[in-house]
Each structure stands twice: as structure tokens, then as C-alpha cells.
Amino acid sequence: MDGRVNAESTPDRMIELQAQIELLERENERLRRETRRAKQVTHRRAALSLAVIGALCGGTALLLPSVRDLLFSLSGIGLFGAVLTYYLTPEHVLTADVSERVYTAVVENEQAVVSELDLSDERVYLPSTDSGDVRLFIPQHSEYQLPEPEELRSVFVVSASGNQRGVSFVPAGQLLFGEFTETHTLSESSFEGYISQLTDAAVHSFELTTAAEYEVNETEGRLTVECIEPAYNGSVQFDHPLSSFFAVAVATRLGSAVSTTTTFNDETLTTTCQWEPLSEDE
User: Fold this and answer.
1) Hey, which of 159, 219, 259, 265 would disulfide with 164, CB 3.0 to 4.6 Å?
2) Residue 53 to residue 78: CA distance in whole angstroms
3) Contact between 211 and 232 (Cβ < 8 Å)
4) What is the DSSP string of the chain?
5) The dihedral formed by the CA atoms of 107, 195, 214 and 125, expressed in degrees to the nearest 10
6) How far apart are CA 114 and CA 130, in angstroms?
7) Bridge-based pairing state of the strands 222-230 and 209-217
8) Residue 5's pLDDT is what?
9) What is the pLDDT of residue 18?
10) What are the beta bridge partners of residue 124?
11) What is the spatial distance between Cα 137 and Cα 169, in angstroms, rounded to a whole number?
12) Is the dihedral of CA 132, 137, 143, 148 positive or negative?
């Protein structure tokens, strides 16, 4: 009797959780639009102020011939600064504190889904059928089998086999890795060179950490990365941006599943990525 009740209630819980996720996505989009609008107003006010200063200096130059050259120079600087501020000031730059709060809110919701469904502690990053796309798979049981790639397109993975069931999320590092591939020429010859590029990008391009050290063991299929003073709270370890970035990158490079474990001690975030080593024939 209890088994039938649980079986019947699980789809209802999934539908309810799916509705909550969709509601949160709409709310996040609304907040993004409001943030962009507020930034545009701020930038336009600054541009208007510079333009007014430039115009005043230009007008005054016509009335004061003795300092005309100086005032015309200031006018040009003010007007040029107005143009730059209006058109070139980035509109999507967020402080680390703001972006961390957004990330934490998303992670808390994902963790709530995982807890509600009583899923395992496993975190597996899997390439899907879509080119360049990786999904974060959290299996229902610790003893699991990998689902078919096309099943990862849905948030709730309900396979015929119970060992393949779980949830599938877009990982936090997916878009970061996309940005990385657009701005870097990837090392094709050396896997270690590839990892070096990743750590360098995490420190200098994305500024996700002040320093990063790594150790690769291709024979055993393991990568360990230590990130010192990460920009995002290291105590929030569910799909942490740094861990996710490295896991997505390795899964994409190898075309295979990558599991992760993450710890945070003494302001150092340690991520270990593990995968099935390739045979010598491969």
C-alpha cells in the first residue's frame, strides 16, 4: 500500500517541482531585465552629465578667447567621454557579491530538488547528444548506471531502469566554458597543457580565484585542482562554478562522464575530477 502511494506521489512531486523551477526562471529573467534597465539609466545619466560639461566648456570658450584653447580641449574630452560612457560602458558586469547571491539562490533551489527527491550524493558531468553540451546528472542511487544522452535533456530523468533515474541540470560551468572556448586557442596535443589553460583562465580571465594549482594523473583518470581564495563561497559546494568549470571542460575534452568531489578548507577549494581512463588502444 505504501509503495503504491509513494509511486503515485512521485510524479506529482516532480510536476510541482518543475512548476517551481519554471516560476523561478521567469522571476530571474524579470530581475535581469530590471537590473539591465537600472544600469542603462545610470550610464545615460553619467553620459548626459559629461555632455553638459563638454557643452558648457565649448560655450564658455566662445566668450573667453584668452582661455579658448584650454576650454575647447575640456569640451572635447567631456563630449568624447559622454560618447564612450553611453555606448561602450559594459551593462552586464556584476560585483562578485551580487553574482554570488544569485548563484547561491539558484543552487539552494537545485539542492532543494535533490533533497526532496532523496537523491544520492554523486555528481556526474555527462556530455549529451547536443554538440558541446554537458549536463550535471545526480543519480537517485549511489549504485547507478549512466542514462542515455537524450534522456539528459529533461530535468527529471525517469528511465525504465531504476539505476538510471535522477535529475539533470545545466551546470554552472557550462557558459563559462563556452566563453573560454571562444577566447582561447585550445591545446590539442597535451592534456596537461589544456588543464594549464583552464587554470590560467580561472585566475586571470574570469577572476574566479586568486591562484590555482593542479595535479593530473591521466593513467588513473584523475585531476585535482586547488583554488586559493575563490571568489564564490567555497562552503557552497553543490556545482560550485570553479568545480563545474573544470568538470565541464574535462568531460567535453574526453567525451566521457566525469564525477567530482569538492572540499573547502583554509580558504582553499579543492576539486577532484575522476573519469574512466582510456585504454592504450584508444
Assistant:
1) 159
2) 6
3) no
4) -HHHHHHHHHHHHHHHHHHHHHHHHHHHHHHHHHHHHHHHHHHHHHHHHHHHHHHHHHHHHHH-GGGHHHHHHHHHHHHHHHHHHHHHS-SS---HHHHHHHHHHHHHHHHHHHHHTT--S--EEEE-SSTT-EEEEEESSSS--PPPGGGGGSSEE--SSGGG-EEEE--TTHHHHHHHHHHS---SS-HHHHHHHHHHIIIIIS--EEEEEEEEETTTTEEEEEEEEESS-TT--TT-HHHHHHHHHHHHHHTS-EEEEEEEETTEEEEEEE-PPPPTT-
5) 30
6) 24
7) antiparallel
8) 45
9) 78
10) 137, 259
11) 7
12) negative
What pLDDT does 1 receive? 47
Give the pLDDT of residue 249. 95
The top-scoring range by mean pLDDT among 10-14, 85-89, 264-268 is 264-268
Please write the tens of the pLDDT for every residue from 228-246: 999 887 776 788 999 999 9
Report whether pLDDT(95) > 60.
no
The answer for residues whose C-beta is within 8 angstroms of residue 274's C-beta and 6 or more apart is 221, 222, 223, 258, 259, 260, 261
- Nearest-10 Cα torsion for 114, 119, 125, 131: -70
Contact yes or no for 273/250 (Cβ under 8 A): yes
Task: State the sign of the Cα–Cα–Cα–Cα dihedral 2, 8, 12, 18.
Answer: positive
| Residue pointed to by grid coordinates 594549464 | 196
Strands 156-157 and 134-139: unpaired
